[in-house]
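call fold(seq) -> tokens
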Amino acid sequence: MPPSKSVYLFLCPGMADWEPAYAISLLSDHYTTIPKTNSYQVRTFGVTKEPVRSVGGLTIVPDFSVDDVSIDDVAMVILPGSTYYEKEDPDQLASLISRCIQAHIPVAAICGGTLFLARHGFLDTVRHTSAGKKWLKAHAPQYRGEQFYTPSPSVSDKGIITANPLGFLEFAAHIFLELDVFPSAFVDQLVSMTKGGYFDADALNGSE
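ret:
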């Protein structure tokens, strides 16, 4: 039986549509080609339910507004990258993320999404990465987590996953592990095959 809770993807203007795509497509209960330990319904939300346009020009309508998201249904919140966070700082989103972290619900942020976490102090006491700690400090003067900054594609620590703009594959891998979507050995194989550019179904199936 799949988990009863859902993964919530934040939609904002200018979101980098490719950054969460690998993660949500494979963890989704709509994708059944590869057997999974757990799969999740993916739900989307925005500050409002108004359509947003991604950086690739896709128009997407959120399932929920942020005010309508109940953390009782949340298995994880994913914040994709966008320049939106450099200009906007919605209090409702900060409140949701704070409640999730207090309830030990994982939060995953990549690229500009990490800026939002830094601005609200969520990265001050956990290992994390981003587009650079000077970049974080320039856009979020409140940021005090420099000593925990790690220049890696993706970092997972204490239920908070962060990723560099180019770390979307490792970002997905950390999400899979946090949500127990695939066994760790399979995740390692998946990352290796994706980076190599060749999917070997025989190897995954244990065939000679």
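The chain has a mean pLDDT of 95.
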